[in-house]
Task: structure prediction
Amino acid sequence: NVAQPSVPVAAGPVVRPCPGRIRHFKI
Amino acid sequence: APHIPGLVYRELDCDDPETEQAALVAVDYINNHVLQGYKHTLNQIDKVKVWPRRPMGEVFELEIDTLETTCYIRDPTPVANCTVRQLMEHAVEGDCDFQVLKQDGQFTVLFAKCDSSPDSAEDVRKVCPQCPLLAPLNDTKVVHAVEVALTAFNTQSNGSYFQLVEVSRAQLVPLPPSTYVEFAVAATDCVAAEVTDPAKCNLLAEKQYGFCKATLTEKVGGEDVAVTCTMFQTQPVLPQPQPDGTEASPVADSAVTAPPPADPPAAALVVGPVV
Result:
């Protein structure tokens, strides 16, 4: 039996709570 | 207030609906309290901390970025319908700190501090090398253009004499050599056609404001002026709750006492001559 080596699960994207989204454009 | 050991703030996502609600209340506060320039709209929430408040409620400590729209501050158009001033027009941003209390589901502004600043000349040049930059409002050419435009408007007017309220924006255009200005006016108790001494004219008790855009073009042996003005209906202004719990006098003008019209008119009416 050939076992697939365990692959570390990639961590989910780091959510940066701030600053928030830009609604129009950044000056 | 004395520091309370162990008092911790709640971390909230800047795009959390609750944060956005608080930020929109903050932007409404700006637009209801500023008496000069243009309405602003929310661009980005930079930071938020939510502090518990005794005996009840929470205080949202917010840092927000706003952008200038093209709606004059006394224009009754809802800010959601106003166009954001584009980069090539030399955009203006606002940086604001707010404290907004949330209690019983209601948001109330406790503290507000905003600074506004135009985009850098370099940024404008990047997107539009030929676009004119904002000019100082006390520039001789700007002052002259406003005077000529207002005189031309009043000369053609068959109603009230309009007085200058403020110059809100100006640009010096190199080709053709011209000056572009935007300014606010208000109706007086004088009839435009009969005015001999404008200094004796008084603003009407029930204020009627207008917003004008004009271009003064330099020509050989003279100049041409083109001006268009939009007159706003007089708007009833409701008292705003203040931080100390008192009811403030109306935001825009305490003399405005007109009851709300039974059938609300269109946001603005374009009246008066195009010269």
Summary: The two ends of chain B are 59 Å apart (CA to CA).
